[in-house]
What we know:
Largest sheet: none
Distance between the termini: 51 Å
Number of strands: 0
Order of helices and strands: HHHHHHHHHH
Amino acid sequence: xxxxxxxxxxxxxxxxxxxxxxxxxxxxxxxxxxxxxxxxxxxxxxxxxxxxxxxxxxxxxxxxxxxxxxxxxxxxxxxxxxxxxxxxxxxxxxxxxxxxxxxxxxxxxxxxxxxxxxxxxxxxxxxxxxxxxxxxxxxxxxxxxxxxxxxxxxxxxxxxxxxxxxxxxxxxxxxxxxxxxxxxxxxxxxxxxxxxxxxxxxxxxxxxxxxxxxx
Length: 215
C-alpha cells in the first residue's frame, strides 16, 4: 500500500479525503459505478494526484474496506448490564446505525458475496482472510468472540435458547443487508431520518428476538 504523502494544515489529509469521497460515490453509484476522475473532481485535483496515495482504483477500494473492517470489529461490544437481552438489543441497535450511516459498507459487503473466485473481494482482502477464517483469527475474531459470549450469557440466564453464533450472525446480517437494498435502496442514497433508524432497529430486534426465544 502506498505511503501517505503531503498533508495540508487545517483540513483532513488528502489520503483521508480521497477515501471519504470514494465512500460517498460507492453509496451513490455502487462499487463499479464510478471512475477515479469522479473521485478527483470534488477534490479539485487531477487523477494522477490520486496515484500519489494509491497504486490503483482497487488499492483505494481495499483501503475503504479496511475502514469498514475497523468499524465492524467494534460491533457487539455489549454495554455493561446484568441483562443479556437488553445488551443484545443495544448491540443490534448499534449494528443498525453502523450499516445505515455507512451505506458504502453495505454495497462493499454485497459485492464481496457476489464475486466468488474472481473479481476483487475487497472486504476479504482488507480482513486478511475469508469471513470463515475471521471467526477464529484476524481483525474480526474478537467481535465474533464477543457475540458468542453474549449468546452464552443469554442462554445461562434463560433469556435465550441455545443457538449457534454463526447462525445468529447470518440471520441478523443478511436480514439487515436485504432490508437496506430491497425492494429499493433509497436508504443508501441519503442520510436516514431518526424515525427510519428506529423503525429498522425495532424490525431487526423483532427478528432476533423471535430466533432467540425459548421454546
